[in-house]
Amino acid sequence: MRRTRVEVRWLLSTVLVCACLPAPSSLAQRDHSRDETRTLTGRVFSSADEPVQKAIVYLKNTKSLAVRTYISDTDGSYHFPALAPNVDYEVYAEFNGTRSDTKTLSAFDDRKIFNVTLRLHSK
Asked: Domain ranges in the chain?
C-alpha cells in the first residue's frame, strides 16, 4: 500500500508540472507573431543622379563577416530582407569601376525598415 501512495504522489506531481508548462503550439505562435527582423531597401544612383541598373550592392554582417549581394533592378533599387536586429551591417555599391560610400546600419537603431540611397563616385 505504501508503494502505491508514493507512485500516486509522483504521478500527481508530474501531472502538475506538465500542466504548468505552455503547450508547444502556443510557443510556436508566440515566436512567429514576434517578427524582429529588419529590412534594407534603397536605390543606387550615378554621380549624375541617374538610377543605375545592374550595380552590385554589397551587404556585410559585421559580426559574422558574411557578405550578401544584390544586383540592382532597372530603377536602381535593391532589397535585403530578414536582417538580424542585433547586428551592425555595412552596405555599399559598385558599378564599372565606381563605388559608393559605405553606409552603416546600426544594431542600436530600432527601425524595422531602412531606406538607404547609394550614390556612386569615382574611386
From this structure: 2-32, 35-122
